[in-house]
């Protein structure tokens, strides 16, 4: 996963997606969690690399945790 998270739990976009995806691919990583606003940057990644990877596009930290750890995470409002 690459990105920044706001205090409200929103996953914010980041730069350098092509380089980060290519580095992950070279390292053998096949599942990548990206901020949804960065979806447009995937066009810069070669098609043969994209075909070899699974991309999970997220908007909130709960989605990141669920995807990264394969379990349900309660929404932030439930913790209040």
Ordered list of secondary-structure elements with their pairings:
Layout: E1 4-5, E2 11-12, H1 17-26, E3 31-35, H2 47-51, E4 54-58, H3 61-69
Parallel strand pairs: 3-4
Antiparallel strand pairs: 1-2
Describe the structure in brief.
By secondary structure, the protein is of the alpha+beta class. The chain has helices at residues 17-26, 47-51, 61-69, and strands at residues 4-5, 11-12, 31-35, 54-58.
Helix-strand pattern: EEHEHEH
| Straight-line distance between termini | 27 Å
Number of domains: 1
Q: Architecture, CATH level 2? A: 2-Layer Sandwich
- Portion in beta strands: 15-25%
Class by SSE composition: alpha+beta
- Stretches with pLDDT under 50, minimum 5 residues: none
Q: What is CATH's topology name?
A: Ribosomal Protein S5, domain 2
Q: What does the radius of gyration come to? A: 13 Å
Strand order of the largest sheet: 1-2
Report the count of strand segments.
Answer: 4
- Shape estimate: globular
Just give the CATH class: Alpha Beta
State the share of residues found in helices, binned by percent. 25-40%
Summed up, the helix count is: 3
- Average pLDDT: 89
Please outline the major beta sheet. Answer: 2 strands, antiparallel
Structure report:
- The protein is of the alpha+beta class.
- It has one domain: 2-Layer Sandwich (Ribosomal Protein S5, domain 2).
- 30% of the residues lie in helices and 18% in strands.
- The strands form two sheets. Strands 1-2 form a two-stranded antiparallel ribbon. Strands 3-4 form a two-stranded parallel ribbon.
- The mean pLDDT is 89.
């Amino acid at each position: 996963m690459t990105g920044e998270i706001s205090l409200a739990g929103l996953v914010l976009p980041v730069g350098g997606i092509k380089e980060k995806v290519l580095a992950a691919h070279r390292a053998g990583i096949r599942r990548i969690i990206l901020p949804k606003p960065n979806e447009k940057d995937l066009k810069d990644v070669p098609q043969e690399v994209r075909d070899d990877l699974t991309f999970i596009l997220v908007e909130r930290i709960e989605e990141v945790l669920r995807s990264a750890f394969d379990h349900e995470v309660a929404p932030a409002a439930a913790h209040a």
